[in-house]
Amino acid sequence: MNITSAEFVKGIIGTDPILKEKYPQIAFVGRSNVGKSSVINSLVMRKDLVKSSSMPGKTREINFFIINKKYYFVDLPGYGFARMGAKGAEKIRKLILWYLGSGEARVNMVVLIVDSVVKPMAYDKEMADILRAENIPFVVVANKIDRLNQTERSHNMKAIESSLGALVLPYSARTHSGRDELLETISKLIK
Ligand SMILES: Nc1nc2c(ncn2[C@@H]2O[C@H](COP(=O)(O)OP(=O)(O)OP(=O)(O)O)[C@@H](O)[C@H]2O)c(=O)[nH]1
Ligand SMILES: [Mg+2]
C-alpha cells in the first residue's frame, strides 16, 4: 500500500452515517498515550494530520481520515486512562466497545498498538480477546522501539508476542521504522 492522500473527515461520538459507508475501516486501538495518533501520522508521513500530545487522553472522539479516497483510518481514544476519572474512562470504554462490537460500523481490521517499552497490560490482553471474540482481523504494533536497545527489543517483542498471542510488528512513529511492513500487513489483512 502506497499512501497518496489523507484527509480528516469527521469525529463522531455515537451513531453516524459514516459508519455504514462503503469504504473499509482500519481502526487504531490501544491504551492512552501508546502513540495511536502518532502512528497514523507516521503512516501518512504528516506531522500534524492527527493531533497527538504528551498529555494522555488527547483523542476524545472517533476520528475518521480518508486515505487514497478508498479507506478510512479510524483513530480511537485511548482506553485505560486513569486520570480521566472513573466516569470519563467508562464513557470511553463504552464508546470503543460500541464501535468494535455493535455491528454498526464496518470495521475491516484493527491495528492494536502497544507500548514496546512496558510489559503488555491487562487492557492490552482484554482488547486482543475482544478482537478475537468479534472475529476482527488485527495486527499488534509495538510502538516506541526507538527507546529500546537491541537486547531489550528482542526480549520485549517476545514477551508481547506470547502475552497477546498475535503477530507483533516492531514500530517507531518517531523514526518510521517498521512503516513498510505495517503498510504491507494492512493491505494483506483488508483483502
Ligand atoms: N519515543 C517515541 N515517542 C512516541 C512514539 N510515538 C508516540 N510517541 C509520543 O507519545 C506521546 C503520545 O502520543 P499520541 O500519538 O498522542 O498517543 P495516543 O495513543 O494517540 O494518545 P491518546 O489519544 O491520548 O490515547 C507523544 O508525546 C508522542 O510524541 C514513538 O514511536 N517513539
Ligand atoms: Mg490519540
From TrEMBL:
SUPFAM superfamilies for this protein: P-loop containing nucleoside triphosphate hydrolases (SSF52540)
A GO molecular-function annotation: GTP binding
CDD domains the UniProt entry points to: YihA_EngB
Keyword GTP-binding included in the entry's annotation: yes
Signal peptide start and end residues: none
InterPro entries recorded: G_ENGB_dom (IPR030393), GTP-bd (IPR006073), GTP-bd_ribosome_bio_YsxC (IPR019987), P-loop_NTPase (IPR027417), Small_GTP-bd (IPR005225)
Cellular component terms per the entry's GO annotation: cytosol
Family (UniProt): Belongs to the TRAFAC class TrmE-Era-EngA-EngB-Septin-like GTPase superfamily. EngB GTPase family.
PANTHER family: ENGB-TYPE G DOMAIN-CONTAINING PROTEIN, MSS1/TRME-RELATED GTP-BINDING PROTEIN
Name of this protein: Probable GTP-binding protein EngB
Species this protein is from: Candidatus Nomurabacteria bacterium GW2011_GWC2_42_20
